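hi support,

uploading two proteins for the ticket. first:
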Amino acid sequence: MELNKKFWQRLEKIYSTFDIETIKKWFNTKKRKISIRINTLQSNEGEVLKILDEKWLKYTKIDFLQNAYILDDATLKDLWDLDIFAYWKIYLQSIASQIPVNFLDLKSGDKVLDITASPWSKTSQIASMLQNTWEIIANDNNAIRIDKLKFTLERQWVTNTKVIKTDATKLWEILEENSFDKILADLPCSAEWRINLNNEKSYWFWCESNIKKNYLIQKDILKNTIWLLKVGGILVYSTCTIAPEENEWIVHFLLSNFKELEIEDISLDYKYIKNWITRFWDIIYNKKVDKSLRCLPSEETEGFFVVKFRKITH
């Protein structure tokens, strides 16, 4: 079974030939480099790097993130017997996955909402950056994922997070208006970064109707969430997909319909960060979409999209 030709046609509308070759290389690889985040609720950089050095495990620090490292040649098997892994002093989390939280500008006193917390990496990242101070509300609508989230948070010594279970489009029914300083909207998406041409199970589901379905879900969640954000508060929206409908088009939707939101400049000096797009097929997006970030699927990163908004008025 081959990946739908429509996918490649769409890719050519988004990226340069050189970038597409980078993506194809990732789609054909059998493994991506392992990346970790140091869990500062249980450990610190000195302890973790000392262990990695003792085990002759080479690593590269990611300068634009807090406590993030790529293990250059390590495998999961190399980590299994390490206490820092067994006791959750390090946490496996991709580089791209760590980027959205970085733009929340977390500080003491923040009340934070993680709208769709599964698969829970970002919730524990937020807790670690806040050092278990103040309050995080982490939501999901699936009981099994909720149990996994609670287990993960407990193992990482996260104590400032309240886990709730509800449909993300109905958070307004149980949470207070204008009550959150920061909201992370890392929403369900078509997850095109997962495509691996060596495994048809990773792409058999791909179709444009699935992209449209996710776009509609994302819109529905966001339009029912924005009113929970305080004036002056920050909303970070992100996906782990390539599709413009779930990325730039969502930004266009928010800018067109919520005048209380102002898009903010963000930037990263990283070789896999690429330009946004302002047009896809016959649709032209708001020019302010150029303040978004795209991250290429690669041996180091997932495909990711990130944008930051500030609420400037009621």
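and the second one:
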Amino acid sequence: MALNRLESKLKPLLRSFVENGPPGCALSVSSNGETIFEDYVGLADIETKKEIASDTIYRIYSMTKVVTCTAALMLYERGLFLLNDPLEEYLPEFKDSQVYRKNELGELYTSPAKRSITVKDLFTMTSGLTYPGEGNETEQQVGKAMQELGGKLTTRTIAKSLASIPLAFDPGTKWHYGLSHDVLGAFIEVLSGKTFGQFLQEEIFEPLHMKDTFFRIPEDKKDRLASNYTRDESGKLRKNTEMDSHIQADAKFESGGGGLLSTLGDYSRFAQMLACGGKLDRERIIGRKTVNLMATNHLTQENNDQYNWGYLSGYGYGLGVRTLVDPALGGINSSIGEFGWSGLLGTWVLIDPKENLSAVYMQQMLPNLEAYHQPRLRAVIYGEI
């Protein structure tokens, strides 16, 4: 990889992002387990003029999902479950699931699901579980349930609550982004006999020396947390503090779908591990063949039709990750099987085992401009291979 050329292209690109978007951002690119590019641009907090630095902590939201799915696959490798097992064998509350349906008059009714949710359905977002919202009856009921749980929200209580709500569709028939990976967190607790956070800490974070990755921000590290900003149509940034209840010391819920905080360096080590076939610095976390399974497209043509986010054109969906299946369709210069995911505030990870390559990008802003930033970063990085 032409490092000087990579630097000459990425540095101005990151500065252009900050000029027209977030107050600050950071990017790390790694090859064969070594960091080959790292840059920190702009501010972590506008008001105090604190700069983005190597120890800045970010809310990574849905990039948590890649960690959760890796953790669950570690248990798969120990023979504790099979992907096609019915979920109810491990979480009995999901036995006899119901599904919301509509008759010819558009009237809502429920009837039994045509089959059980499988463990694989949780990984692939084909379970029928949703996020809270207004799009359908399941989303509305999930919203009410989470509101009612309030301070009692934990990894186990959310799974039990979701199990009592009829699904949005029959398991396996559609792809629908939702709380499936949060239920996977409860699944990990049941199989491991540890809290979800404890399992991640002992099995992933400690072996990889990820010292700044956790669900709750320690008091002595609060000053390192980047501020989150909302950008209006004129480009003005306003600090947003309304989304941080889940990271406070008294929060109980360890969200497998979006709860983790991390630094650029920590998450880069996790990404490098996957890019190097599940091993980093002689520490084997997961098997190479299991990483390949994770990065395989698991969607059928039937349920791929819902997976239509514009900037992910050309990608399928594996075990909790986007995965490139059609470079021509997306106009993408990366490898088939390149995989990863992104987070609500614009964070992004790219993992390519074929090239032993990974990249992690961090920022904290809504709207996140991911459809503009992320494909450009990918195009530049692969342009220098």
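thanks. also noticed: The chain has a mean pLDDT of 96.
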